[in-house]
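Internal QA ticket QA-208
Title: Verify multi-chain structure generation after dependency bump
Assignee: T.L.

Test input:
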Amino acid sequence: MSPMSAGQAVQAGFKNIRVYLDGEPAWRKAGYPTYAGYGFICQGNNVIVDLRSAEKDAVARIPRSVSMPFATFADVMDEIPVKAPVVLYSDKEDEMLAALKMLRENGYKKVSLVEDGYRGWKHLGGRLVKGPVVTEVNWKRKLAPGEVSIAEFEAAMEDPSKAIILDVRTIEEVKVGKLPMSRHIPLDQLCSRMDEFFATIDGMSKDQDIYVHCTTGARAEMAYKELQKNGYKNAKYLVAEVSCELDDCDIEE
Amino acid sequence: MQKMLVRLLPFLVVAVFGLSGCVQPDSQFGSAAKPVAVAKKVTGPVFKGRVVGKSMKAKTISVQVGKGKKAHAVLIKFDQNTDGIEHANKGHGVIVSYEKQGKDFYAKSIRPKLAKMPKGTSIIQTADLKKMIDNKEDFVLIDSRPAARYSQSHLPGAISIPVCEMQELMGLLPKDLDAALVFYCGGPT
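Actual output:
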């Protein structure tokens, strides 16, 4: 995208143009902070963390903030789901940077800061709220197009008439355990054997609801796209940690 | 007649941009800013596109190929003989040299697809950009990604001009054409 924008700036007559081709991911990987925009702070599907003391938080905070004072942040940060986008703020720059580093080192990929922290927010004229502190993280991921919720998936496990549950893990993984009612085809065979495979299922049609799972959701998403491409328009995929032993499986966010 | 065309050219270019949207950012710079990077030659069939999925367990990558309505993902297998699997990262552009085995595609080699740079621009690395920001140099940093991505996480001091809205938001850029601009997005795609 950036080379194209740069090309348009060339067209407009700008003469001093550079492109940071490695972009935002490289900036993050180098350990440098990134910042959240106003709209995302106000309304994003995220966790807003106030690193200041609980006393300060109670007096004035950014709406929806969860209070996690920096002194104890290391002990409580794992209450934040690792997949949640997180926005941190404090009135001390070094605390924000340290908390950002801790989260990123622990696998949080979407962490950003409020620019210039609490002071920056006030300076922007951002809304503040007061009242008893909130310490409980209450975040639910919004489903992406084609995703099935864990609840819907589990309902289909109870009632097989709801959907075909399709396991696309490897043969080795399935040997360790699988969902009792699921059908299995490894992802790498799905493309070449899709029609042959579905032909073995009674009453199968292209309108059939199909819920695909693997161990994390990565392969399930690929399988979902293949199914869609081949006209199985009611296929969906599960993004969740699925681990099985015999016919006992754990499904976790 | 030729003169006429030359005078019309900027307008034609604008028209092309207006229509092209942002589906294939690396292929349409208009005629005055020709791509300069030349891809190395490969023999045999290739898929060019963006990696949309990768599974080390299934040894499969999925690559989005084609433009507009024809865009679709292909599933490609790889194994220990596949060259350059480290280049297959989600979101990155790749050129996959493959062979067909039955109905399946096998990747022989995977190379990064480098973005084509418009003439008159140069690339800046992380360390140099960091220096410019730390030294508070006078320049405008522009995030070309969709506004939602900017809002979730952007570089310090960056402004948001999504590539598709460049024409409408050109007014956000300085009036001085000698002003230093740095554009970035979500990585080399």
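Spot checks passed. Chain B touches chain A through 78 residues (CB under 8 Å).
Status: verified.
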